[in-house]
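Memo to structure team: turn this sequence into structure tokens by end of day. - J.P.
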Amino acid sequence: MHFHPPSPPLKKRKLEDHVERFYDPYTLDSPNGDVSMTLHPNETVQLKDKSLLTIHHFEQDVVLNDEDLVIHIFVVGRRYLRFRDRQELGGFLRNDSREVYQVGNGKRTVLGPDRTRYSVHQIHRKVKLIKTNLSHRDFQSPSRDTFVCRYLCDENAIVRLSAKDADEGRTRVDDTRRRNMFVYRRANVPPPEGNKRYTFGDGFCGLGGTSAGARNAGLEVRWAFDGDFDTCGIYAENFHRSNVFAGAVDQFLALTEDSHVDVLHLSPPCQPFSIAHTRPGINDDPNSAALFCVLELLSTVRPTIATIEEVPQFIRSEDHK
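Reply from structure team:
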């Protein structure tokens, strides 16, 4: 006698999928139906995961499963993340919960196959978003429901918005004027000189490899400093027209009265952060302490562009966060 196993239950088959895009206002009701929210394209909403979405359009998905017709509504648009929620950015702007940056750029972000879309039920509330090319020092959010975007993240790079990307009004300034506001620390700034070369400062300069690249690029190497006296002697031979300071960073800050440069590069000792650093060294503490000078250097030098040398463990290691 043979027994046949029972047949598995039939699954509901997806018979038809249809996605329709629309730009008309959409009214979202609360679960109990006592509150409604009317949403329009170009409005910005905060989602339940704390991110923001500026609505580009809505999408209606119609799914027919056997005899059941299921309709899902999605909101599609450009997404913004709070700096506070991005630990990998090293704490940049994390103290202001209303500072966000734009994710991606171009039409593909909202119309491509990888577009960002969320169920309308993921919407928490409507908010206001201001896009500006002013610095945080010159403009902050005026209210708890207003978020500020001044950067976009595209292909793993955080880039400041330009004037053409900022909203019209007092939160948009000419890019050259904004740069000079940052450099000279005041709103009424002198006009730029057309024949003036950009200046360069080299912190923890070593023998001057980075300074050599800056000089070859046409920058005026104004000054450099390093804690090793012999190294500074060799640097001085290679850069006769530049001031070189032999001493620690705190001595450099104390002895220089006018240290402003357009471009600042820092190569602080990286041994404690290197993957080759497998056991403690006698200079670990002073080498690590050199990093604490970065904020004061930026505040004193006020460069337009600042770069810092990185080793793999510098921002990736949990031990150094």
